[in-house]
Protein 1
Amino acid sequence: MAYQNSPTIVSETPGTKHYCTCGESANKPYCDGSHSRLNTGKSPKMYEVTDSRRVAICDCGHTGKSPFCDGTHSTL
């Protein structure tokens, strides 16, 4: 899997987002359907953003607060 050892920081606007959890998206942190094409066994994490804000999206695949980074990557 193409996971990284750091989060992806994005400035989000309100709306429904689908975040990549398989690590293979070419459009990280958003899902591009790679999980289906590559049969990763993972599904994107849907999240409703209600307010504009900066967020840290997990890109190590080990967070306990998906889709958000909880710092787990720093202990791997």
Protein 2
Amino acid sequence: MDPLHPACEPLNLLIGTWRGEGHGDYPTIDPFDYLEEVTFGHIGKPFLTYSQKTRHRDTNQPLHAEFGYWRPMTDGTLEVILAHPTGIAETIEGTLSLSENGKLLIKLTTTHIGLTATAKEVTQVARTITATPEILNYTLDMAAVDHPLQRHLEATLIKADEFQS
């Protein structure tokens, strides 16, 4: 495997596969519980690769997936590009910080959302992620289909293994 690019060092603890459970809710849908798998990887360039997929906890039916790239900047900011199979593309920016005890905090907000002609109207997304080497927690707030920004998802994931290229 290629060595980690120095620009990605602040995100090093994310590299690998994370698995866990989450809960989703929104005014336009019934509440649901889900299983999730997230993988962060790298190819030696100044970004991490990212893939995410979820399944319904009770029926095991696929729910959602997204793929993209996480680009840490030298000033402590983070740029993220995500593509969703539902016709949505997110450009996201925010901050990342590492506490003295090694906990990573990432706060991201969409700066642009691209929608295909058939995509559901999403106008804003905000993500907060906290991670240690073993546990990743996140919340996702969303403004969509004429509803204001509000909690949509929250999950806890556990580090499953070390990333293999």
Protein 3
Amino acid sequence: MELAKKKCIPCESGVPPLTIEQVQNYLKNVKGWKLNNNYIEKEYRFKTYLEGLNFVYAVGELAEDEGHHPDMFLGYKKLRIILTTHAIEGLSENDFILATKIDQIKS
């Protein structure tokens, strides 16, 4: 799966979320992301608070470019990112595309 080469596409209500089998398959392609109910999440750690804040800005720019926005919770030297597709109240391919691209920023 070449998720990094894909672009998020708008998702409208009425489209079914991914099945648990599809989610498990996608999870194999995103290292460190964990399934929790109808979203995936990952925690990143940083040497300084400012490093984490700069990462938040980079993810924000990516989210704007992709048109798919995560929930982000910045704490002292750590950041928790949650991805879900709110319009369908579950996970879509967009969540895994964005997860892949977020990980590329961090590496």
